[in-house]
Structures are given as structure tokens and as C-alpha cells.
Amino acid sequence: MEDERERAELVAAGRRLAERRLVVGTAGNLSVRMGDRVLVTPTGGDLGRLTAEMITVVDLASGAVRAGELEPTSELPLHLAVYRATGAGAVAHAHAPASIAVGCTLDELPPVHYNTVLLGGVVRVAGYATFGSAELAANVMAALSGRHAALMRNHGSLACGDTVGHACERLELLEWLAEVYCRAAAIGTPRLLGDGELAAVAAELSRRGYGAPRPLR
After folding, report:
1. Angle at CA 212, nearest 5°, toward 79 and 163?
2. Taking Cα atoms as reference points, which of 71, 78, 43, 46 lies closest to residue 57?
3. Given 10, 77, 110, 114, which residue has the most CB atoms within 10 angstroms?
4. CB 140 within 8 A of CB 68
5. Would 73 be classed as within a structural domain?
6. Which run of H or of E encompasses 99?
């Protein structure tokens, strides 16, 4: 099977999100792009019990099923919209509680920690639309512009990356940032980082090659 590795990565990512409680039951979905094809999790599928055989392959251009026995996730239009507009290699969508809480109350996730820059900047909240709709896909794409992740009002969160593991890392970071904000707001008024401070962090991360181990110089 030519896509055996990608299927295995999707299965591992699904279990990872379930174990860390970013998804519960059938909430959330994952996909990986392979050229002109997209491997995607099925509608009604429990990500914590996903198997390689449950993955459906669809055409990137049309969304038509090219392989598989299960109907693809209802959020397929959203996944395809990301791939058609960006160079992302994978997309992860979850119904993580802190992310939902922020998306229910704010228009963006306030920058309470400098790791905000790892998501491309302050994370925006996409306007509400019915799940699986073209309108939702358009709203999320607007919020995702220039970013690696977005919140979805009264719905959940989405992140993209080079691999599905990378997308999940960003989704987990987004949930962590949302949780930090919620805890800070419960204590008092959070002190936020300004644009200049975030820019300085971005420059320093770039200078240091932050995010990957490296040998001593």
C-alpha cells in the first residue's frame, strides 16, 4: 500500500489527540495531503479507535472519493479549502474545551505568552457557521490568513502543518495557550504582550533556530 505510512501517522495522531482529551468520541478530524489526493478520517469515526482501513482517500480538486469504504468527515470542505489555499501537508481539527471556551467569548486569543508567535501570531476566531458548510470553510480561511491555527466560534480549533504530527503539535499548543488565558482571566485581568514584544520574540526564535535540538558549537 503506497500510503501505508500516511495512514499509520493518521491513526497515531488520532490516538494522540484522544489520549490528551482534545477530542472526545467522534468529535474532530484529521487529514494528510499526498499530491493530488487527500487521506482523511471518516465521518462518525472515533479518533481514539481509528484504524488504517478506516481512512478514505479523496481527490483534492473535486473532493470525490478515490479509495475507501467509509464516507469522509463532514468537515471535508474545510480540509480541502486549507490545501487549495496553502502549502499545508496536514490538517487537524478538534473540539478542545479551553479553545472552545475562548472561541465562545472572544474574537481572538489574547497573547498571554510569547509562544503565540509559534502559531504565526495572535490566533483569530472564525465567525460561526454550520459545521461542514462552505461558509464555515470560508470563515476559517479568513481567520487562518497568515497563521498556522485558528479558533472557530462555538465550535473548536484547527491547525495545519507539514505533517499530521506537526499539525497536532500546533493544535496542542493552541489548547495550552487557551488554557493559560482562561486560568489567568479567572485570577484577574491578564497582562498581554504587545506587537513589539511579539516581534522581538519572533526575531530571537529565528536567530536561535528555536524548536529543534542542535549540537554544541
Report:
1. 20
2. 71
3. 10
4. no
5. yes
6. helix 97-105
Mean residue pLDDT across the chain = 95
Query: Does 217 map to a domain?
Result: no
Q: Three-state DSSP class for 67?
A: strand
Any domain includes 211: no
Backbone φ, ψ for residue 108 (5° rounding): -160, 160
Q: Give the model confidence (pLDDT) of 6-20 as tens digits.
A: 999 999 999 999 999
User: Can you tell me the mean pLDDT for 116-127?
Assistant: 98
Amino acid at 2: E
Cβ 66 vs Cβ 142: under 8 Å = no
Integer angstrom CA distances of residue 216 from 44, 119, 206, 208, 213: 48, 27, 18, 13, 10
Can you give the C-alpha Rg of the chain in angstroms?
A: 17
**Domain tally for the chain?**
1
Closest of 37, 43, 39 to residue 62, by C-alpha: 37
pLDDT above 80 (res 59): yes
CA distance 190 to 115: 16
Residues with a known catalytic role:
75
Read off the CATH number of the domain in which 53 is found.
3.40.225.10
Residue-range definition of the domain harbouring residue 170 = 4-206
Spatial neighbors of 109 by CB under 8 A, at least 6 apart, are 102, 116, 122, 123, 125, 151, 174, 177, 178, 181
Q: Is 45 helix (H, G, I), strand (E, B) or coil?
A: coil
Between β-strands 149-152 and 125-126, what pairing exists: parallel, antiparallel or unpaired? parallel
In a domain, 55, yes or no: yes
